[in-house]
Write a structure and sequence with these properties.
Shape: elongated
Distance between the termini: 24 Å
Strand content: under 5%
Order of helices and strands: HHHHHHH
Helix content: over 70%
Radius of gyration: 20 Å
Largest sheet: none
Structural class: mainly alpha
């Protein structure tokens, strides 16, 4: 019991540090990309950030919805990526936490900041001021559209993740296999404990 608490605390601290670092990197990169570009390009960047969040949210849901059994059959036939997919399922809690909470939430925060920059850029480009009614209307409309795309996209992604969790995780497993085989980068360490079956 004590070990479980220690593992949970260590993982929480590790994920907090990872979030801090990645949030800083995302913020710096997005601010750099948005500086000096037109509002139209900025809008494209905002939606790219949103879709990154949707994509990783889908991966996180897929890991919690998937079952090991199909991957064991693939592993028996020595299909590349099947063993890595098994590790994703066995570490579904941590994998989902990283995808949904870290990348997903960071994307949401950064897209909000980026949206504000785009709105200001658009407002100034048409000769309006930041305290004008026009700026307020544009801010409300654009923020609402971004929120709608984010929520709608995540809803669609969750549906796809639950329906196609096996093929989705298999593709991720193949990517992890390439990282391990070509670059000696082990994303998930072996965990022999099976994931509890869902009711």
């Amino acid at each position: 019991m004590v070990n479980k608490w220690k593992d949970a605390i260590n993982w929480s601290l590790a994920i907090a540090v990872i979030t801090l670092v990645l949030a800083a990197i995302f913020s710096i990169v997005s601010t750099y990309l948005l500086s000096g570009v037109t509002w139209a390009v900025g809008m494209v960047i905002v939606f790219i950030i949103v879709f990154i969040g949707i994509f990783f949210d889908m991966l996180g849901i897929a890991s919690t919805a998937a079952d090991e059994t199909p991957f064991h059959a693939m592993a028996a036939e020595r299909v590349n990526g099947s063993k890595q997919a098994i590790q994703i399922v066995r570490n579904a809690d941590r994998f989902a936490s990283f995808c949904n909470d870290v990348i997903g939430d960071i994307s949401g925060i950064i897209s909000g900041t980026a949206s504000a920059i785009v709105v200001i850029s658009f407002t100034l480009s048409v000769g309006q001021t930041e305290d004008s009614l026009f700026h307020y209307i544009v801010a409300v409309v654009f923020t609402s559209v971004v929120a709608a795309v984010t929520v709608g996209g995540k809803a669609f992604g969750k549906s796809m993740a639950i329906r196609y969790s096996t093929p989705i995780l298999f593709q991720v497993g193949r990517l992890f296999y390439i990282l391990e085989d070509k670059f000696n980068i082990v994303v998930l360490k072996e965990n022999k404990k099976r994931k509890n079956k869902r009711n």
